Amino acid sequence: MSMIKIDMNSPEFIQRMEKTVKFTDKVIKQFGWEYNPQEEVNEGVQMGLARNKMMYNKLFCPCFMVEEVDGKPQSVDNRICPCTPAIEKEIPETGACHCGIFVTPEFAAAKRVELGMEEAVHTHSRGLSKEECEQLVNQPEIDPDEMMALLEARDLGMVKFKLVDVREHMEWQMGHIKGADALVPTSSFYQTLEEAGLKKDENIILYCHVGSRSAHVARIMPDMGYTKIGNLTHGIVSYGGEKER
To answer: What is the number of domains present in the chain?
Structure first.
């Protein structure tokens, strides 16, 4: 299966996006939830839902891999929006669904306060020593500040790794981390992984939208012989560094 490319500017996608926004509006009204105060989170999830509807004719959650089972596409954990785990567990327990688009009014209020604070106190991560770089790049989970520091260190020749985006081509076009080396979409994972030409013994850091698809891929790749896999925790939505379109 080759990489699937959907034109975000096509009338078909624009129409599907409008229907998807109406759908998420309806879900919020039905359950008494709110949208995430971070608008880019909501837009990213809505675009992913629209893309999945066009690709698979189902509103599969865009934060989870879709695999073929008995010739039919199926989402990991059967995640179809609004998904059962979000309704029964995630939102009652944490205040937000896994993708982050649907939140409780209490979560939204706290997030608005937090975003105001973060803006005031955010400081860039400090430079790393070569030894710290080696320790960090070998961790299974890497946080956004650590990712920024590692990319800076790589630019200085202090560490080597490949940063791989496992979202879809459309999401990559919307914006990807500056310094990302390859796009290996989960919808065409095995073929595009081969085309990416990654070495099995090199450090590879994966990322997606909120960290789910990349975490799933991180579990698959060691079985294929890749020995040094890391995951950007919480994905590109949590990353405060430079992005390219």
So the answer is: 2
